[in-house]
Write a structure and sequence with these properties.
alpha/beta; acetoin catabolism; 381 residues; 37% helix
Amino acid sequence: MHGDCAFIYSSRFGQGVFGQGHPFKVERFALTYALLDALHLLSRPGIRLIEAPRATYAELLSFHHPDYLRTLQEFSCDSTRRADFRFGLGDMENPVFEDLFDWVSLCCGGTMEAARQVLDKNCRCAFNMAGGWHHAHAARASGFSYLNDAVVAINSMVARGFKVAYVDLDAHHGDGVQEAFYATDRVLTISLHEIGKDFFPYTGVVKELGTREGYGYAVNIPMEPHADDLIFEQAFGRIVIPLLHAFTPDILVTQMGMDILRTDPLTRLEMTTGAVEYAGRFFAECGLPWVALGGGGYDKLNTARGWTLLWAIMSGQEVGNALPEEIHEALEVSGNSQKSLRDVPHLARPDDFSRAQDQLDRTLAFLERRLLPLHGLGFIR
């Protein structure tokens, strides 16, 4: 597939103020940009560096309730501490701060611009690393997410008659996106995530398949803690790839949360950057117009490395394995001794792997028996 690649960015992505002790670190955006710039991955011909705009109020209303948006705006007017737990606002998880509404509208607007670049500006792919807020509901903030940029953007695509496949690789279940499209067959949602029995948002079991016209178009692949690259590649190869081929979407939207990486402080999966590159290569080679979003990732360097490798694949560039000297200096100040862009290969401990494999085998057996036939695929052996 020919065409330019768009990287959506704004220095204002770093202006979110979650608080000193909050696990979400907005500094990861500037760090990723600095790493991409140091590796000269944003400067070759055919790459568009696009300033993110704010999403419009009308765009947000395609999913979010007016009362919720009004409250979010009101709470953003100054630094007064406020809370409204009906809307999930003001607790430790989803703090409110001055200019919050403008900031989250900017992150959402980045995703809308990524969609425009792909749909209307002849780009084959676009990346908004400040998108991917997949836990936000129509009238409730959740999981550090205030506006669901993926839903707002996909709504605009569906309104134009497109079929959309949404694939979520974040360690947490993409509950807000699934909920939005649970009853439609115009959007296929696939989420690979850490199993939710004791893990936020406690949803995404394999039997959540959709309802009414959407039955069979919500797909969940929960994985046991310590699932590694081998588990991920089995799940991806046996479910994600055949479903995308069978669904024949017009557009691909992916959420590329880097909290799947094994040293993330909030999650228990054991993937490496090898899994990121494996998935990224498939998405790039499948020939679909592709909008990629950021998502989770609570180790700043992990996140920057994963997104850098993803962007290199999206934009068709080769990148070596050494972190540039400029990044070394910044990391040494923070006490980080990482020198490589890629992780070394890693396998889970045998007992952890066995538990993860047993869980995956049950999940795949269910999906191959109950889900794949709905898409004309039958059993895959």
